[in-house]
UniProtKB/TrEMBL annotation:
It comes from Streptomyces morookaense. InterPro entries: TonB_box_CS. Keywords: Signal. This is Uncharacterized protein. Gene3D superfamilies: 2.160.20.160.
Length: 201
């Protein structure tokens, strides 16, 4: 019997089995790798006084707060509560921001966007809302009256946008070059807002 030939045949059989195992292993591993490459679903991402917060309800304190949100999911409420709060939106905002009582400052930065389902509500106190980004949702002055809504020349209003005063006399200021004319709505309480907009024509 040719032992060398037998050894060669055995080696080929082992090699073939190893190749089949490698193919099966690759077939099992590849789908897992593909799943791992699927991007995770975006979640609400805010900080309150430097502490990370997520979930359906982001709450401030009764005092002065600094709230920064890079993402607010639909159905999420950011409630600053009392105090003179500073709220900054730096990314996509599809939930609701409620400034609460106090003299609050809300800013939508140039990288920020108030989505079609999103809203910013000044609520109580004399608030200032500065918009430097995109508005596809609703911006409302607070119920306390005397609020200022400022739209910079970089702000963009889509066809769904609504800029609204709510009670007493609010001021809507628009820098030259901004896109606001179709977005300003009448005061829901019937009191005319003082609109000073170089780009309203």
């Amino acid at each position: 019997m040719d032992l060398s030939r037998t050894a060669r045949l055995a080696a080929r059989a082992v090699s073939a089995r190893t190749a089949r195992i490698a193919v099966v292993a690759t077939a099992v591993i590849l789908p897992a790798a593909a799943l791992a490459a699927t991007p995770a679903h975006a979640v609400t991402d805010c900080t309150v006084n430097g502490v990370h917060r997520s979930g359906r309800l982001i709450e401030g304190t009764p005092g002065d707060d600094t709230i920064v949100c890079s993402r607010v999911e639909p159905g999420t409420v950011v409630d600053a509560k009392g105090g003179n709060d500073t709220i900054t939106v730096t990314g996509e905002m599809d939930g609701d921001i409620r400034a609460g009582g106090g003299e609050d400052a809300v800013t939508v930065t140039r990288s920020g966007r108030v989505g079609e389902g999103g809203s910013v509500d000044g609520q109580g106190g004399h608030d200032r809302i500065d918009i430097d980004g995109i508005v596809d949702g609703r911006i409302r002055g607070g119920q306390g009256g005397g609020d200022t809504i400022h739209l910079t020349r970089h702000s963009k209003m889509t066809g769904h946008a609504g800029i609204t005063g709510v009670r007493e006399t609010d001021t809507i200021v628009a820098d030259a070059g901004c896109d606001i004319a179709r977005a300003v709505r009448d005061d829901t309480e019937g009191v005319a807002d003082a609109v000073k907009a170089a780009c309203m024509a």
